[in-house]
Amino acid sequence: MQTGDPYKVLGLKAGASQDEIRSAYRRLVKKYHPDRNSSASAATQFMAVQAAYEQLSSGQIASAPSAVEQKYRERQAQYDQDLEAYKQQRAAAREKLRQQKQNEEAYKIAYLQQLKSGKTGLWHRAVALLGALLFMVLWIDFFLPEKQVPIRAAAYGLHSYGSVDGHLVQLFKSTDERAFWVADYLSQNLSKTQNLRSIETPWLHQAKALAFHDGLYELTAPIHFSFYWAQIWVSLLFLLPLLSWYFASADIIFVAGSFVSRYAILGCMLWFLFSENRLIHLLSLGQL
User: Which of 174, 184, 187, 286 is the most buried if burial means most Cβ atoms within 10 Å?
Assistant: First the structure.
């Protein structure tokens, strides 16, 4: 069964070029496609357009509209089948991803419980409490009235080094086995000064400056590289284990914070306590 004159079906004159045929076909397909045109005659016209274009493009007699319709429906069925398979594949992938995330979350929660309740949790808690104690001690020691302790010169360095503020400094040692970095023009003269004293905090004995008499004048020389100028910032570092514990959650931040607290910050705390007799000063409330 033929479709009639294919040129008339496409609205063309006999002998139209292939470009004109393709252009007319695209226009009519858009116009009569069942997805765009719901009228009763649209489907019939659509099949006629398909058959006419098939005849003109192949140079053969067009298939019957029913055959064109059957071919179209077969292609549509294959498309629907492929689409359904794709949807099922996407759904399976989403389910796999959901299960993976659920397993990861369960692992995080279990690991978090281990960090909070096991031996590791006890370790972290101890570090957090020690850090909180040192935090309070450093702040109290920083704001208590400073005191002056008499010292005597034991030795001084001969080499000058650059300080953070651009001054040249030399190492000066006292008879109590402490070392101070002071301005290079003062270090070799401190042994000759009268009433040499260290100005320091009353509890942990953190040296701030050196005081001495120079004739009729009372002078002070700041100490460079002194822990006194950094102890507030260090106190904030000691507070990190407590903050990490308080804001604990099932994420990598707490895991990393717990690891850093138990090793790096604990190491800093131990170095702080066992250097310059700070542990003795702390336990004796500054009396020793």
Answer: 187
The distance of Cα 8 from the centroid of its chain, to the nearest Å, equals 69
Query: Could you tell me which residues are beta bridge partners of residue 211?
Result: 197, 220
Task: For residue 146, give every residue at least 6 positions away whose Cβ sits within 8 Å of its Cβ, in sequence order, or none.
Answer: 199, 200, 201, 202, 208
Domain contains 288: no
What residue type is 24 in one-letter code? A
50 and 182 part of one domain:
no
Output the CA–CA distances (angstroms, integers) from residue 46 to 18, 35, 52, 65, 183, in the order listed.
19, 11, 10, 9, 98
Residues 101 and 36 in one domain: yes
Contact by Cβ (8 Å): 53, 66: no
Range of 247's domain? 109-139+232-283
Rounded to two decimals, what is the model's pTM?
A: 0.58
Q: How confident is the model at residue 158 (pLDDT cuts 50, 70, 90)?
A: confident
Q: Is the pLDDT of residue 65 over 60?
A: no
Same-domain pairing of 41 and 184: no
Tell whether 4 and 96 lie within a shared domain: yes
Rg (CA), the chain: 44
- The pLDDT of residue 213: 85
Contacts 24+ apart (CB under 8 A), 25-34: 25/49, 25/53
Distances (CA, A) of 130 to 134, 162, 266, 268: 6, 35, 9, 12
pLDDT digit string, tens, across residues 267-284: 999 999 998 889 999 999
Q: Are residues 12 and 100 in the same domain?
A: yes
257 in the same domain as 175 = no
The CA distance from 32 to 41, in Å, is 9
CA angle 100, 103, 108 (to 5 degrees): 125
